[in-house]
Amino acid sequence: MNLLVFAHRGEAQEFIKKLSMKGVSGHPGLYLNEDTALLITGEGIYEVFSKLGQILGEYSITKVFNLGIAGALEKSIRLNSFHEIKTVYCHTGKPQFQSFTLNSENSGIDVITSSERVLDDSYANELSNFAPLVDRELWAIAKVCDECSIPLRSFKLVSDMAGKSTDCFDLKEKALEFSTRLLEFWLGIEGDQEEDPGSQEPPIQMSFTQKAKYRSLVKALGLKEGFDLASFESKALAEMKEGLSSKQKANLLLEAMELGLNPVKLSTKKQFEKLSTPVQAIGARLLFDKNFEKKKFTLQMEINDQKNIDNLSKLSEILKFSDFEKVWNGELDV
Fold it and tell me: pTM for the whole thing?
């Protein structure tokens, strides 16, 4: 399944409407249709870090596409032109010496991601030493995709000249126009891509979210030599007990498909979920890399009162990193 990433809802509004995308409960900014996911991250690199990794960890995303507007740093860049991005750099008050080269199919041009809005010419001139375009999010998107080993392509619509002439209000007023042009451009790209072999309908009723996951698993299972999907599904459905709801049946089928694809990975995920129970009890969550290969995790928690901080202090007593290390080392019955 492809994931489309946008910074703002204004840029994504026509995609959501014209592609019949539905919001996903529990994931603000995430939308799905039958074969595509769309994520609105919010503006800035830190917004991307807080949202994108979670989605890549929970959904079977095969490719990520970033679409959005960018400011020109050179007068030679024509306004309202589209550009595929080749390499992205970052400036957070000072240059960051880690860049990412994207999976561009054309020569492309470079972009630099700025942690601040570019509202004066001196800052724009400084950034122009690195790239001819500037945005606010792509570097963070590229970093997360690189860590998850997921290919990324990015296409930018040049909206204005970055610097003191930037009119943020005017850009917001043009959001619908930008979104329409981005959608037209994307449909042209999508038409050039091969038809997704995982586009068939599931054998039972599924929600948008479940169907998207099903299609991704069908595509992955189809790569296994001698795999008979029809027989696999018939066996899985026959083993289900009576009286289950459509949602329960769909979840059981998806779980069986995951197990058939990678039983070790599924066992690892379940073990980590078990070990994470004390963390969830205090309103926090642990985030792992998509393939559970990196021996680290991120603790995510919203702090809005002293009780949250007090609960965090108790984690050292109930959470043991050594238990997670055992799972990473292959002990799946911790």
Answer: 0.59
